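Hi R.,

As promised on Friday, here is the backbone we talked about, encoded as C-alpha cells. Could you run it through your design pipeline when you get a chance and send me back a sequence?
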C-alpha cells in the first residue's frame, strides 16, 4: 500500500502541477442550461439540484484531470441538497478517482472518542457489515478541525495510516476573521504556531519514503508571513493552501509555503477554475457556453503561474 504523501508527490511530479481544483458547486453559478435540463427531468426538487451538480462537476473533472494531481470537493455544497446531495458527493469522488486523481474531502470534521472514530470511519476508513468492510465516501484525504485537541485528531490519523490515506489539519485558515482565534496569544506565541507544533508532533511518526508525512496542514495563501513561520515548524508536512485566486492571493504570495525541494504545498482554486467560463478572459476567447474548455485553460494558466514559485515541480 503506497504511502499517501508518496502518492501525492508522484502525482505532482507526473502532472508537473501542485494545483488542486476545488469542487465547490455554487448553485447560482452553474450554467443555466445544465440546471434547466435537470429541472425539466426531475422537477423543482433537491434531486434535480444534485443531478445538475453531478453533471457539471463530472464535466469539470474530465476537463482538468490531465492537468492537476488532486481535486477537493467541499461537502457543504452537496449536503445542501440533502440525501441526493450526498449521493452526488460520492459520485463525484468516484469519478475523480476513476480519472486517477487524488480526492481530498473538505469535511472539516472534529469530535472526540467514538464520535471522532465514526467520522474517521465514514471519511477515511470503512464500516464492517457482514464481514466485509465498506467505504462510505471514496476519498484519499480529509480536512480536520483540531479545536478539540489530540483526542479529536488521533482517530483520523489512525484511520488514515491503516488505509494509506492522509489528513490536513486546520492551522491558519484563509478567511479574514481567522485572526479572532488563530492569532490569539498562547504560551507567548500566536495560537496558529501552537497548532503548527502539534501538527509537527502528530506528523513525525508517519513519514513516507520521500520524507513527507501523511499528516498535513491547512494554511491560507492570504497569510504568507504566517506561512513562513509555520513552514519553519512543519518541515515534513504538505500544506493544503486555500485562498489563491478568488480570495486575493497570487503566485508571489506562495513562496513561503514550499520547501527547498519545491514540494510541500498544494494550492487550491475553486471558483477561478469551476466558473472560469464567466470570466471575460475566457468567455471572450471560447464563448459563454464553453465551460469545460474555460476550466481547462484556467488550470493551464494557473499551473504556469505556480511553476514560477515551485521550482521542484
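Update: got your reply. Pasting your designed sequence below so it's all in one thread:
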Amino acid at each position: 500500500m503506497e504511502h499517501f504523501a508518496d502518492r501525492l508527490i508522484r502525482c505532482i511530479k507526473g502532472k508537473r502541477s501542485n494545483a488542486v481544483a476545488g469542487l465547490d458547486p455554487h448553485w447560482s453559478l452553474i450554467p443555466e442550461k445544465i440546471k434547466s435540463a435537470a429541472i425539466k427531468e426531475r422537477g423543482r426538487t433537491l434531486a434535480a439540484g444534485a443531478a445538475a451538480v453531478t453533471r457539471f462537476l463530472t464535466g469539470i473533472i474530465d476537463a482538468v484531470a490531465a492537468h492537476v494531481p488532486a481535486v477537493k470537493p467541499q461537502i457543504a455544497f452537496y449536503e445542501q441538497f440533502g440525501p441526493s446531495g450526498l449521493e452526488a458527493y460520492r459520485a463525484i469522488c468516484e469519478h475523480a478517482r476513476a480519472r486517477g486523481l487524488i480526492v481530498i474531502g473538505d469535511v472539516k470534521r472534529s469530535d472526540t472518542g467514538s464520535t471522532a472514530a465514526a467520522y474517521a470511519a465514514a471519511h477515511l476508513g470503512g464500516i464492517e457489515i457482514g464481514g466485509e468492510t465498506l467505504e462510505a465516501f471514496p476519498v484519499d484525504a480529509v480536512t480536520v478541525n483540531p479545536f478539540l485537541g489530540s483526542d479529536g485528531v488521533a482517530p483520523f490519523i489512525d484511520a488514515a495510516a491503516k488505509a494509506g490515506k492522509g489528513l490536513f489539519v486546520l492551522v491558519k485558515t484563509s478567511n479574514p476573521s481567522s485572526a479572532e482565534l488563530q492569532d490569539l496569544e498562547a504560551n507567548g506565541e500566536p495560537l496558529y504556531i501552537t497548532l503548527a507544533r502539534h501538527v509537527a508532533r502528530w506528523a513525525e511518526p508517519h513519514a513516507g519514503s520521500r520524507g513527507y508525512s501523511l499528516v498535513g496542514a491547512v494554511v491560507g495563501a492570504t497569510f504568507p508571513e504566517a506561512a513562513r513561520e509555520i513552514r519553519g515548524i512543519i518541515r515534513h508536512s504538505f500544506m493544503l493552501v486555500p485562498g489563491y485566486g478568488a480570495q486575493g492571493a497570487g503566485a508571489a504570495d506562495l513562496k513561503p509555503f514550499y520547501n527547498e525541494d519545491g514540494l510541500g504545498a498544494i494550492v487550491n482554486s475553486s471558483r477561478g477554475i469551476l466558473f472560469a467560463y464567466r470570466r471575460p478572459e475566457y468567455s471572450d476567447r471560447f464563448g459563454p457556453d464553453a465551460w469545460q474548455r474555460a476550466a481547462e485553460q484556467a488550470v493551464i494558466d494557473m499551473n504556469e503561474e505556480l511553476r514560477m514559485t515551485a521550482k521542484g515541480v
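One thing I noticed while checking it: The chain has a mean pLDDT of 94.

Thanks again,
M.
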